[in-house]
Amino acid sequence: MFHRSFDKDMNQDSHTKPPPRPDCRRTDDVCVSTWNINSINAHMPALSEYLRQNSPDILMLQEIKTETDGFPFLELAAAGYNAAIAGQKSYNGVAILAKEKIEVVRDKLPDAPDGGDQARFIESFCPALRSRFISVYVPNGQPPANDPESSDRLEYKLAWMDALAAYAAKLANQDTPFVIGGDFNVIEYDGDVYDPAEFKNSAFTVSSVRERFRAFYYTGLTDALRRFAPTGAYSYWDYRGGAFEKNNGILLDHLFLSPVWADRLVSAVVDDGFRGVPKSSDHAPVSCRLSSL
DNA sequence: ATGCCGCACCACGTGCGA
Q1: Is the pLDDT of residue A21 over 70?
Q2: Residue A278 CB closer than 7 angstroms to strand B?
Q3: CA of A271 to C1' of B5 (A)
């Protein structure tokens, strides 16, 4: 009787779809990540391992700290990745890694201060994913140690963020879906830092910076991580003082989705295991899954 | 108040980062 019944059930189900697999197993999803790598050459082993384990379709990188000449194109190609880069010697430098072919749309933020001399922005288009992907590294804004009263760097940061908000507003009026990922160097809420008092009135928390951060994403963008990460999720931990072990972290890295992608957001997470490995960046990757267009 | 750590480089000291 059991077998008879079983066969009958099978026949009844033969024209229905199989049960959905868990989200993490859906191979048609698009995985998009961002990571402040703090020198791509110093942290290539960790990057290779991240690509092998997580296999993101797109990875936005910041602080690659090299020009094109020193960029590890060959190793990345061996790992199955194309790269678009806006490089700079020693400091800054951004890139976008992609499994599929990508085209550089621009390698400077329009109307950035100093004409965008600092390599903090790169915009790509991926025909296979029918989307733009933009990697940004917002200026730090803190004064240098030898001139703690100066405001030049904060002013540069504010001007840069004004230009970013203006550009996001332009993108919002275009049809192409996009993701803007990067290190925004903003502590949006006091809950995004282990000790708000220590960062009070810093270039990460002052209202002028928070206001510009919101002006940027209030153009209609969705912060992927906010949908899923709890308060107290961090993406940066200082190298000093055992900050990672104490979880003395800060949330600085974000993935912002245009509306079409926001409707397809499946999950988002900080891959904080990659902050714990030896010779790691001081930032962890942030990644999200999107159901494909 | 300072260094705490780790990166790059006109490198054995300095600038930068958050």
Answers
A1: no
A2: no
A3: 22
State the total domains in chain A. Answer: 1
Which CATH number fits the domain that encloses residue A131? 3.60.10.10
Summarised one tens digit per residue, pLDDT across range A83-127 is 999 999 999 999 999 999 999 999 999 999 999 999 999 999 999
Measured from the CB, is A185 under 7 Å from any atom of strand B? yes
Asked whether residue A201 carries a pLDDT value surpassing 90, the answer given is: yes
Cβ-contact A105, A132 below 8 angstroms: yes
Q: Is the CB of A183 under 7 A from strand B?
A: yes
**A144 strand B contact, CB < 7 Å:** yes
Which residues share a beta bridge with A183?
Answer: A137, A253
Does the residue A92 lie in any domain? yes
Which nucleotides on strand B sit less than 7 A from a protein beta carbon?
3-9, 15-18
- What type of residue sits at position A204? F
Contact A290, A264 (CB under 8 A): yes
What average pLDDT score do residues A22-43 get?
Answer: 85
DSSP A70: G
- Both tokens of A282, joined, read 């001081």
Check if residue A140 sits with its Cβ under 7 angstroms from strand B.
yes
Residue A60: which domain range?
4-8+23-291
Q: pLDDT by residue (tens digit) across A132-150?
A: 999 999 999 999 999 999 9
In a domain, A32, yes or no: yes
Q: What is the mean pLDDT of residues A46-66?
A: 98
What is the distance, to the nearest Å, from the Cα of residue A146 to the centroid of all Cα atoms in its chain?
A: 31
A139 in contact with nucleic chain B (CB within 7 A): yes
pLDDT at A26: 53
